[in-house]
């Protein structure tokens, strides 16, 4: 695919310095000489083949027609008899010859038009009627022929667009997803020299954070005419903004002022990187420079024709129509000068929220307020899903570890309820998380790996992925042939695309995660970009203020540590993130300094090279599809926030040169923006923009600011099963008055089929929604944030009026207590809470167990037995056993599915112990069997059942129970502790079971 390559000529810029973040003014705002790339041998080869093709088409075709077929038309006026003659092969050939002559004439006209436009360098070529792809092909050949003399890239579209249709007066049917492909193509062609060239260009093209501002000052309207190419240099909006506005980043203001306005040649500006000589650009009022024309004042040095064109163009602007000409920065990333573009068809447009989940964006659109929740996590669905899933696993681990550590009266029944910032962050995770998107992404990638393995094909190198409305676009380093079904070819051979509907058909594949190094960087338009850190051929550098860089590093580290599309990996943090270790202790390690990092990575690099050689693999990707896929080739991702010294930077560049083949990725922070071996240079601004101007990227960065980082870590630390293991048991968040005086006004039965006592059933189709909302509130007596409630009920988003209407109906349905107190209220933090008179059976179950083991039951045996018996009677089955399919999906975020079986098991064990104190084995067995109906997998219950059965003295009964246990255990066999217990209680159990058969 042809790539446009130009050298940026922007002036040197200042950098943010000092603690205050003040930005120095530009050192030189005058245009700088353009660095010219010498013509390569490839340029001459392309020109030669273009010349041969033109000669064949322009001279060879008519020559062959004239000499081989001759003149196809009749010599005189045909008679009516001619129309009645039989159509022979000769007649048919003559008709085809006429068609070929017409096509040749049209193509020749296209070549002449394109040659005239290219040589004059002014304006765009005129359209040859009906030419379409023929004129596009002529343009390509003319451009290649003139490549050795002058740049034609500014008006030459890619060959990949052939067939999409060419109409300068219509809106293009492609949308720019600029970024990685241009860079990656250059890296494939010249991996060793690209990093140095990009670093040198970046030092000139880095934008000023504050200088010049993002809003044009008021002043007279000025116009600029796009200049024709000079040598190998052509105009770009970035360079125009750099020369006349003092900041190349302000090219978006020029783009917004002129977007979709008809140019003198009849076409329109639709992409900031696709401008043509002769076009007119309206400039912001503070533009300065001798090339600008102020209108309608008389401009003596401007031709009358140009004055007329500018005057006509001015009448089409927003100011002429009473509008406000948009001068603010657009959130869309438009390519700057010299940036290669990738145009994706609209139907394949990559986008941002993960795999069809629009929670973060749609819910965020409910109102202009985030209700006090951290916006950074609300707009990071994949990161939030990873953190939420990891936090749930950590809390379950704490529950199970605590459960098997003691019997009865144990601590850890309830995880600590977060407060303050930690509570806000937890709510933001619940609102922003997209577990379905993560699941689809993981299944899609593993399914692709499995399909390729079945075809004995290697995994292609993937540099990046774009997520859009559930569609997944993989950006390959180089063409890899036809993708396996249901994957489809993208816009060209370097894109593979999977539609959401096809992704949903994938099942779990027993294969290693193929691209575990993918990590979210941010969004552009509706597109979310995931960069494959382990595949970038070199270092990814990040410049900007220290605090802004730290937020990016923390986001990347947190997502890599908790994402759901990887199996194993090592994440080495240097210069930051020592407190991030609790997120994934098995993945994250922290090194003190760069020297330790270099020493570690030198050894790691040698080891991986040797392992690849011994295994006969070319890269980690080929290893991941082999027989050892689950045990080898895990990525090692290095995140270095500290500025390395010049010597260390060179060492890191040498290590990174071969890193992509070895599955090692480097993200390195820099204060200056210059870093040896940097393959991709990015900058984070104080406004949360992640910029790579030379690549055409401007993302809304995914961040994890320091305050949210601390709150996230606090959630994980509080859930650590090893923390305060000798501390007191946690009290349930809501205790019910279990006396006769505490009879509730509204009683909901959640443990088993869902029933509500004390309220009339709401009428209409909204009944199910109200029941679900009440269930969520009952499971969170500490309060539920309105956005958490709305995102749980409407995962794809909801508007303010719909949510408000639901809350009003819920308020009316629940009503008020006799004293007039509403049963649905809002606390001081804005969270929805239920009155104490609204109770669930789960609340009662918790209260009964707590009172029996830590309250009155501790000192009274009779009270303890009665309370535990009453508690077991409440258990009628699993939580919300009859919930309709498709609803209550928010339960996947909860740990109540682990809490309830453990609570029931603890109750059964406590009641068993109560009966065994009086040697009432049959009563103990009855209590254990009741608990096993809800917690059949709890090994503790089976152990106590074996002991109680042994106490009856009935050996046959004990043998039958052991046989039942073996049948339940399946191919895995009995757990070691169960076998040991049977050896103690029934030494000959193996022979007895074998005899039974």
From TrEMBL:
Organism per entry: Streptomyces cahuitamycinicus
Keyword ATP-binding: no
Stretches that traverse the bilayer: 44-71, 91-115, 136-155
InterPro entries: Bact_Kbp, BTAD, LysM, LysM_dom_sf, TPR-like_helical_dom_sf
Pfam families, A to Z: BTAD
CDD domains: LysM
Name of the protein described by the UniProt record: Bacterial transcriptional activator domain-containing protein
Record key words, sorted: Membrane, Transmembrane, Transmembrane helix, Two-component regulatory system
Domain Bacterial transcriptional activator: 840-986
Annotated Gly residues bias: 320-339
GO process terms (BP): phosphorelay signal transduction system
Composition-biased stretches (Low complexity): 7-25
Region of interest: Disordered: 1-34, 315-367
Keyword Flavoprotein: no
């Amino acid at each position: 695919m042809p790539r446009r390559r130009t050298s940026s000529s922007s002036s040197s810029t200042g950098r943010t310095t000092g603690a205050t973040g003040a930005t120095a003014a530009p050192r030189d705002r005058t245009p700088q000489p353009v660095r010219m790339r010498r013509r390569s041998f490839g340029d001459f080869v392309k020109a030669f083949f273009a010349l041969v093709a033109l000669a064949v088409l322009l001279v060879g075709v008519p020559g062959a027609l004239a000499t081989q077929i001759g003149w196809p038309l009749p010599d005189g006026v045909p008679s009516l008899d001619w129309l009645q003659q039989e159509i022979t092969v000769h007649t048919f050939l003559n008709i085809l010859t006429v068609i070929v002559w017409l096509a040749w004439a049209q193509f020749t006209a296209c070549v002449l038009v394109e040659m005239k436009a290219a040589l004059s360098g002014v304006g765009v070529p005129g359209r040859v009627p009906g030419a379409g792809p023929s004129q596009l092909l002529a343009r390509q050949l003319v451009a290649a022929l003139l490549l050795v003399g002058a740049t034609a890239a500014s008006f030459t579209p890619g060959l990949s667009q052939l067939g999409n249709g060419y109409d300068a007066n219509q809106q293009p049917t492609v949308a720019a997803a600029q970024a990685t492909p241009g860079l990656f193509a250059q890296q494939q062609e010249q991996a060793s020299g690209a990093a140095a060239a990009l670093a040198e260009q970046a030092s000139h093209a880095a934008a000023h954070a504050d200088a010049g501002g993002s809003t044009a000052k008021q002043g007279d309207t000025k116009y600029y005419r796009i200049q024709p190419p000079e040598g190998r240099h052509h105009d770009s909006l970035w360079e125009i903004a750099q020369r006349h506005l003092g900041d190349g980043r302000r090219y978006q203001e020029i783009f917004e002022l002129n977007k979709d306005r008809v140019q003198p040649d009849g076409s329109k500006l639709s992409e900031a990187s696709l401008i043509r000589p002769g076009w007119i650009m309206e400039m912001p009022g503070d533009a300065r420079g001798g090339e600008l024309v102020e209108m309608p004042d008389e401009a003596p040095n401007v031709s009358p024709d140009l004055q007329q064109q500018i005057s006509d163009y001015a009448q089409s602007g927003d100011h002429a129509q009473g509008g406000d000409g948009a001068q603010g920065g657009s959130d869309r990333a438009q390519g700057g000068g010299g940036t290669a573009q990738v145009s994706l068809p609209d139907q394949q447009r990559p986008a941002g929220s993960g795999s069809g989940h629009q929670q973060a964006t749609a819910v965020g659109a409910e109102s202009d307020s985030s209700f006090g929740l951290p916006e950074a996590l609300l707009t990071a669905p994949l990161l939030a899903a990873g953190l939420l899933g990891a936090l749930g696993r950590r809390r379950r681990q704490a529950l199970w570890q605590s459960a098997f550590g003691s019997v009865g009266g144990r601590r850890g029944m309830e995880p600590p309820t977060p407060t303050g910032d930690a509570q806000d962050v937890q709510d933001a995770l619940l609102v922003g998380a997209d577990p379905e998107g993560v699941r689809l992404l993981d299944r899609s990638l593993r399914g692709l790996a499995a399909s390729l393995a079945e075809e004995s094909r290697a995994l292609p190198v993937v540099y990046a992925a774009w997520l859009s409305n559930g569609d997944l676009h993989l950006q390959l380093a180089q063409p890899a042939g036809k993708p396996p079904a249901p994957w489809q070819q993208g816009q060209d051979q370097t894109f593979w695309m999977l539609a959401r509907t096809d992704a949903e058909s994938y099942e779990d594949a027993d294969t290693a995660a193929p691209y575990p190094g993918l990590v979210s960087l941010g969004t552009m338009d509706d597109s979310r970009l995931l960069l494959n850190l382990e595949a970038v051929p070199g270092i990814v550098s990040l410049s900007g203020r220290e605090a802004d860089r730290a937020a990016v590093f923390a986001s990347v580290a947190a997502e890599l540590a908790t994402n759901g599309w990887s199996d194993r990996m090592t994440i080495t943090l240097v210069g930051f993130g020592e407190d991030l270790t609790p997120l994934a202790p098995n993945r994250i390690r922290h090194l003190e300094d760069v020297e330790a990092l270099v020493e570690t990575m030198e050894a790691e690099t040698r080891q991986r090279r040797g392992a690849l050689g011994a295994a006969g693999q070319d890269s980690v990707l080929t290893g991941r599809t082999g027989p050892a896929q689950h045990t080898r080739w895990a990525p090692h991702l290095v995140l270095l926030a500290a500025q390395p010294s010049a010597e260390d930077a060179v060492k890191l560049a040498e290590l990174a040169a071969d890193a992509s083949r070895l599955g090692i990725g480097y993200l390195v922070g820099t204060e200056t923006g210059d870093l040896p071996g940097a393959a991709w240079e990015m900058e984070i601004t104080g406004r949360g923009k992640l910029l790579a101007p030379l690549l055409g990227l401007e993302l809304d960065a995914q961040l994890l600011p320091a305050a949210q980082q601390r709150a996230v870590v606090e959630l994980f630390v509080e859930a650590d099963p090893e923390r305060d293991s000798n501390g007191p048991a946690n009290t349930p968040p809501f205790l019910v008055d279990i006396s006769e005086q505490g009879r509730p006004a509204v009683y909901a039965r959640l443990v088993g089929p869902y029933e509500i006592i004390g309220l009339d059933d709401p009428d209409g189709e909204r009944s199910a929604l109200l029941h679900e909302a009440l269930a969520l509130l009952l499971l969170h007596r500490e309060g539920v944030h309105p956005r958490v409630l709305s995102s749980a009920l409407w995962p794809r988003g909801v508007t303010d009026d719909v949510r408000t209407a639901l809350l009003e109906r819920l308020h009316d349905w629940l009503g008020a207590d006799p004293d007039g107190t509403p049963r649905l209220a809002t606390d001081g933090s804005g969270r929805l809470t239920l009155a104490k008179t609204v109770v669930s059976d789960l609340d009662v179950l918790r209260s009964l167990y707590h009172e029996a083991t830590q309250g009155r039951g501790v000192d009274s045996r009779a009270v303890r037995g009665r309370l535990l018996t009453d508690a077991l009677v409440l258990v009628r089955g699993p939580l919300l056993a009859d919930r309709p399919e498709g609803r209550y999906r928010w339960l996947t975020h909860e740990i109540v599915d682990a809490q309830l079986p453990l609570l029931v098991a603890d109750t059964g064990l406590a009641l068993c112990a109560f009966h065994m104190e009086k040697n009432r084995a049959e009563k103990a067995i009855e209590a254990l069997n009741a608990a096993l109906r809800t917690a059949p997998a709890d090994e503790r219950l089976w152990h106590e059942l074996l002991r109680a059965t042994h106490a009856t003295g009935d050996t046959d009964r004990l043998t039958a129970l052991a046989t039942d246990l073996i049948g339940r255990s399946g191919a895995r066999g009995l757990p070691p502790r169960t076998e040991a217990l049977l050896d103690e209680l029934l030494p000959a159990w193996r022979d007895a079971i074998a005899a039974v058969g």
